[in-house]
Design brief:
Order of helices and strands: HEEEEEEEE
Largest sheet: 8 strands, antiparallel, barrel
Number of strands: 8
Number of helices: 1
Helix content: 10-25%
Strand content: over 45%
Shape: elongated
Strand order of the largest sheet: 1-2-3-4-5-6-7-8
Distance between the termini: 32 Å
Structural class: mainly beta
Length: 207
């Protein structure tokens, strides 16, 4: 999983830099964080769903078309980066995951002035995660490796700084996030899946 993530990460970054040199777009970085809650279930006979809480933060590179362009209704934002996601069950055991995420936002809006753009639209996130629990269960941690998919809505404001070539990006959003994968404990493997409803904020810079 980690090798796959590194390969995808390298390819996406190459595309980002090539696109930045070929087109009039903004390229920079972002930070985000969020929280949510939901339910999860192990694929074991007789297993019941259990409540979970999730907290996450991430950072990485972002690209946006038309970050402050006048007379352009649509803009596309691509964020690629690292995410740390903690999933805590109702017995206070936390699954600590490291992930690689690709986040796509399809934004519609417009400029209220030469240096301010307001936008909103749908967002699609894909992530790949692995990690283990922070506590032993009968002498061994439970590990997990899998993928996640998020679908939601986001809105924000872009602010031009200085000459306007540097842009501060701000985002608020909500999404439904589902994850599924394989958990392992003492060489016993079981499927684990779940979903959460979560809220997030993001800030970043474009150049």
């Amino acid at each position: 999983m980690r090798k796959i993530s590194v390969i995808i990460y390298t390819l996406v970054l190459t595309v980002l830099f090539l696109a930045s040199n070929s087109f009039a777009i903004g390229l920079g970085f972002y930070f985000d964080l969020g929280t949510g809650s939901g339910e999860a279930e192990y694929d074991i006979s007789g297993s019941d769903e259990f409540d979970i809480d999730t907290d996450f933060f991430g950072l990485g590179f972002q690209l946006e078309t038309n970050p402050l362009t006048k007379n352009k209704v649509f803009s596309y934002r691509l964020q690629v980066g690292y995410e740390r996601r903690d999933i805590e069950d109702d017995e206070n055991t936390t699954l600590e995951l490291d992930g690689f995420v690709i986040n796509n936002t399809f934004a519609f809006g417009g400029n209220t002035s030469e240096r301010v753009r307001i936008w909103g639209g749908p967002q699609v996130l894909v992530g790949f995660y692995d990690g283990e629990t922070d506590k032993d269960y009968l002498g061994d941690e439970i590990s997990f490796s899998g993928a996640g998919f998020g679908l939601g809505a986001a809105g924000g404001v872009n602010f031009g700084l200085g000459s306007g070539k540097t842009v501060l990006t701000t985002t608020l959003g909500v999404r439904v996030f589902g994850f599924a994968g394989e958990s392992e404990w003492y060489d016993e493997k079981e499927d684990l899946d779940g979903s959460t409803t979560e809220f997030f904020i993001s800030v970043g810079m474009l150049f």
